[in-house]
Structure formats: C-alpha cells, structure tokens
Design brief:
Blueprint: H1 2-14, H2 30-37, E1 59-60, E2 72-76, E3 84-88, E4 96-100, E5 105-107, E6 114-121, E7 135-144
Antiparallel strand pairs: 1-2, 2-5, 3-4, 3-6, 6-7
C-alpha cells in the first residue's frame, strides 16, 4: 500500500495538484464502496450472496474541473427523495458536510479540500454522519481545490 501511496503522490505532484490534499483519509461505508466497485464486477462465485445493491448514480452537468468552495453544482439522478448533498471528506468533523439540495443544485461548503465523495441524502444530520438509511444516490467522486 505504501508503494501505491508514493505512486499517487508522484502523479499528483507532476500534474501540479496538491500531493496530499487532506490530512486524513476519507472513510466510506460498505454501500458506497460497493457502489464505486460495482462497475468493475463482472461475476461473483457461485453461492455468493453479498446482499448489497449499488446506489443510483449521480451525474454532474457542470464542469468537473475547478471546483472550489461556494461552487454551485448542478446534479441529476434517477433517485427520488434527496434533500441534501452529502460531501464526505476525511477532514470534516463527523466525516460528512451536508448542504441543501434544491432544484438539482447544491453549493460546495467552505471546509472541504481534496478528494471528496458526493452523495445525495434524505436528511442532513448535525452529527455529520452519513448512513446507508439516508443515502439516496451516489457517490460521485470530485476533487475540490
């Protein structure tokens, strides 16, 4: 794993991107990890019963480059019931910053930087904890500078 971390750091450095944009890694729950991996899974061994389904995807219609605090994101999904954008990042107390999701838009909160996982959620708990029971769609991986 340390070799992969060095590779990532080198690639980010030569690409003029912050080598280590956040002091902490971003933890993801099983549902989000499976959703990210689902596109790469072609089959499972006979008898496997993961009992996990991928979340509906999120599409961002504005540019994926130059995302900073206060950027308005235009998002779409087939899922219904979303009222918050959930920005999961290792540098956020509780793990996730929530912002209102209205008319297919939300604003990137001030406290974010680096690789961030964007979900749509049906609630925005003050604890900053995104759980599977309130996750409606995503994650969408974005880089915030």
């Amino acid at each position: 794993m340390t070799v992969e971390a060095r590779h990532q750091t080198f690639i980010r450095t030569v690409s003029n991107i912050a080598a280590v944009p956040s002091a902490f890694d971003t933890p993801l729950g099983v549902q989000n990890v499976f959703t990210l991996a689902a596109g790469f899974i072609t089959s499972c061994p006979t008898g496997s019963n993961l009992n996990i389904a991928a979340n509906p995807p999120i599409t961002m219609t504005n540019s994926a480059t130059g995302i900073t605090a206060n950027t308005v994101l235009q998002l779409s999904t087939s899922a219904t019931g979303a009222t918050f954008c959930a920005f999961t990042n290792g540098g956020v107390p509780g793990g996730t910053a929530f912002a209102p999701f209205t008319n297919g838009q939300c604003v990137v909160p001030q406290i974010l930087a680096g690789i961030t996982y964007l979900n749509l959620a049906s609630a925005g708990p003050l604890t900053g904890v995104l759980t599977d029971d309130i996750t409606v769609a995503g994650p969408l991986v974005i880089a915030i500078s």
